[in-house]
Design brief:
Elements lengths: L2 H8 L2 H44 L7 H31 L6 H25 L3 H23 L18 H30 L7 H14 L1 H16 L7 H19 L3 H19 L18 H25 L4 H30 L8 H26 L9 H25 L3 H6 L1
Length: 440
């Protein structure tokens, strides 16, 4: 078949429809997998860990391997899975990526899902952990590299004007930086897993190494990727002016400096740099300026713009608490509160907000099942996060021990929130596309 014949075949309406259905089916499987990791290995295990900690009135009584299993399932099993699935879908649609991209997406899903599941099971049951811990890291890295090799073939549409201070849209730069941070995080995860296996210091990663890895696992790829998607989507959804390109580039530079300082163990310098990067990101996105257009809330709850702003308030709170932790933490309460404000307050609120806004459209132009459920998922998530962050500082650091009973309550609220979020998306996916629903 000649190149002309190949292009003609790809432009055939039936071929286009089949390809689009294949992409939608692939994306829904990735999203469903992420929801499964979020609910069971992630949130449910996190609730169980917190109940045990609250019952003992001490984080020292918890199993670090179980805590790390919860965290890995949330960051990689949920957030990472969403990023990979959306990346395969959107870049395959936007660029000139070959037909085998969908097949590669399924292979990548198999490797990635297997790696995250093995890591979670190894942390819990410790069966042959010296082999299984590095094996899980290899599978995860393999799944990501297949994704990277596929989407690196992406080429922008022809005749699109060059933008930004360095010749491309700044949101693309942020997403590329997040992809690089993703690769660095998975590589570091593999290196540390091998080190632990050789030294016999596992399956829980030792505290010092884990503290550094957590900076990579949060600030290096989810935070930066969210900044990129925010620069791309929030001006449209929230009616904001376009992002300040140079300010967002400065935020990325400060973020990189903070990560490097954290890897060197310079925690005060690292947290100050990360706080600066968070401030610059908020300024660049113009989140708290008056919108220039009416926000687009059709199909979602009217409070959608408010919760996006709440998310970035949590980002600032997390970075500020981290500075306090570097100076005054004694029992892990300040560090834990900072991480929770970042992962639940910022990341989860952004995923709950933007995810329920764009995923129904990606998956066959569906309409969100229930905007009211969207509101309750976000409201309970943020209320639970307020209780968790405040009580973790007060209880762990012994400033106010009477707050220990609030920890399980916050966990139950967050479990209810993620259950509502998952249920709303799954019910949305079960509905027919909007154009078919209207025809019945």
């Amino acid at each position: 078949m000649t190149k002309t014949d190949s292009r003609t075949a790809r432009s055939d309406p039936q071929t286009i429809k089949t390809r689009e259905l294949g992409l939608q089916r692939m994306l829904m499987v990735w999203i469903g997998t992420g929801l499964a990791f979020m609910l069971l290995p992630g949130t449910f295990l996190g609730v169980w860990n917190l109940i045990r900690i609250a019952g003992a009135h001490s984080a020292a009584q918890s199993d670090p391997a179980w805590i790390q299993a919860h965290g890995h399932a949330q960051i990689f099993g949920w957030i990472g899975t969403f990023i990979l699935g959306i990346g395969f879908y959107s870049l395959t649609k936007m660029g000139r990526i070959p037909e085998f991209a969908i097949a590669r997406a399924w292979v990548s899903w198999t490797l990635w899902t297997g790696g995250v599941a093995v890591r979670w099971a190894t942390n819990l049951w410790q069966w042959q952990w010296r082999w299984m811990l590095p094996a899980s890291a290899v599978l995860e890295l393999g799944g990501f590299l297949l994704f990277f090799a596929t989407v690196s073939r992406h080429r922008p549409q022809e005749n699109r004007p060059r933008e930004g201070p360095v010749g491309r849209p700044v949101w693309v730069i942020a997403v590329l930086a997040g992809s690089f941070g993703f690769l660095v995080s998975l590589t570091a995860n593999l290196v540390v897993a091998i080190q632990c296996a050789v030294a016999g210091a596992g399956p829980a990663i030792p505290h010092g190494a884990n503290q550094r890895l957590l900076v990579l696992f949060t600030w290096a790829f989810p935070v930066v990727t969210i900044w990129g998607f925010s620069a791309r989507w929030l001006p449209v959804f929230l009616g904001l002016a376009g992002p300040g390109d140079r300010t967002l580039l400065a935020a990325l530079a400060a973020n990189a400096a903070g990560i490097v300082a954290a890897m060197a163990g310079c925690w005060v310098a690292a947290t100050v740099a990360l706080l600066l990067s968070a401030l610059l990101s908020v300024v660049s996105l113009r989140l708290f300026q008056t919108p220039v257009k009416t926000p687009k809330t059709v199909g979602v709850h009217a409070t959608f713009p408010l919760f996006v702003r709440f998310a970035y308030a949590w980002l600032l709170a997390s970075a500020a608490i981290a500075v306090c932790a570097a100076l005054w933490d004694r029992a892990g309460g300040l560090w834990g509160a900072s991480r929770h404000a970042l992962t639940v307050g910022f990341m989860s609120t952004m995923v709950f907000s933007i995810g329920q806004r764009v995923l129904p459209a990606f998956c066959g132009m569906r309409v969100l099942y229930s905007p009211r459920l969207m509101f309750w998922s976000l409201a309970l998530l943020n209320l639970g996060c307020v209780l968790r962050v405040s009580s973790e500082v007060g209880a762990y650091e012994s400033y106010l021990p009477a707050l220990w009973p609030l920890l399980p309550a916050s966990a139950v609220m967050e479990l209810a929130a993620v259950t509502i979020f998952a249920g709303n998306l799954l019910l949305t996916f079960r509905q027919p596309p909007a154009h078919l629903a209207g025809a019945t």
